[in-house]
Amino acid sequence: MDPLQERRHLLTRRALLGRTATRLGSAALASLLAPRLFAADGAAGSGGSLDAGAPTPDLGLLHGAPHFAPTAKRVIWLFMSGAPSQLDLFDWKPGLADRFDQELPDSIRQGQRFTTMTSGQARFPVAPTRYAFAQHGASGTWMSELLPNLARVADRLCVVKSLHTEAINHDPGITFLHTGSELPGRPSMGAWLSYGLGSPNANLPNYVVLHSSWSGKRDAQALFSRLWGAGFLPSRHQGVALRAQGDPVLYLSNPPGIDAAARRRMLDDVAALNEQQRAATGDPEVDARIAQYEMAFRMQTSVPELTDLADEPESVRALYGPDVARPGTFAANCLLARRLAERGVRFVEVFLRDWDHHGDLTRDLPLMCGDMDRAAAGLIEDLEQRGLLDETLVVWGGEFGRTVYCQGALSREQYGRDHHPRCFTVWMAGGGVRGGLTHGETDDFSYNIVRDPVHVHDLNATILHCLGLDHTKLTWFHQGRDFRLTDVHGEVVRALLS
After folding, report:
1. Torsion angle, CA of 354/439/107/100, rounded to 10 degrees?
2. Residue 318 pLDDT more than 70?
3. For 389, which of 290, 383, 404, 405 could close a Cys bridge (C-beta 3.0–4.6 Å)?
4. What tens digit of pLDDT does each residue of 377-392 get?
5. What class has domain 60-253+313-496?
């Protein structure tokens, strides 16, 4: 943020208010008397309704957004941190069976770089998948035997096999996918959506992050809070991470001896002090601080109700599998993501770590698919049963793919795969994308893209498009120029849209 620029904006708004006080005052009064009339679509839905006197949602719309009619109102991003192997899950290459332990041809590698983890290997032997593949649904989508539940909803999935990225290591790759830059410090996608579209719910954060436990090895890649940060956007747009143990949000509960009335009086006094500071300095962060205090106060009621899954019928819980009964599992978090979506939360990200299978892939990959497969399919089915899938964009994927050549020792029963940014697979469902579509094609080694490449910026531009946002117009002036999520290229992949 640039405080001087914000100060100028505030002064400009004050001048506007001075010239048009009567008209804007009438509109403000109307919004207080009938907040439903001013709520964004979906605010009156399940769990997101506004009672008389309730705080008015933050509608955003600061720059004409949405720029056109959206096909999705919200996003649930299922992020598989560590990079799942496309070769063992979605990108079937039957010809590799005859190339077992053969050297990766130079004509395929084309001088592309290796990571430091395999650059010292004497050989780069081809490792075919040991898992059977089959076609599923009317669309004939190819999937591994490790995904029996996602196979059941194959006709809802839009599978992109030709995604590629610029990063070859985890932290820059995850940062690039989330923020559009390999360097830390930029706003994440959820923050951009919060900034551009505002929130239809006054009682929950507009951007929520859920971290899942996992069944594989313990040494998974670290995830840093900057991945759901606001960067140079106002801090109120950053994601809020909910915890599975104790208070869902640290310090959300009142300490012993403090009741709701006392907390309300304290917040009023703090707000008065902040108002004095804002009047003296014009610092826009003071507004964000006031808003965050008030949101925390409202969350003391809304969050415990949200995270109590006891009211979910057994038929719904069964969709997600038995792990749904254990807080913090991917299954429980997928159900929680659905509850957040129906309450108007704009962006929910569910992290599942430990897809980084440099070795022992055949031991760890089935464990991770066991954590993920039923819950992800159950989420799609649950959203569809509730009439929410058409307006909710579900995105699944990691930061890059895995290599066709083996890292370490190779046998038919065991192998590992290194990082591979040249091609990997993601899928989407609902929210205006074409179900039953497989887009893009890789070569016979799943090493290079041969048809319909999709860059990370293209994927993010397409997601923003589904929410009614032109990625070239969703900008913020910072350090002398306009920045955007797809900085500075990217095209909407219209072939993915329904």
Report:
1. 50
2. yes
3. 383
4. 999 999 999 999 999 9
5. alpha beta
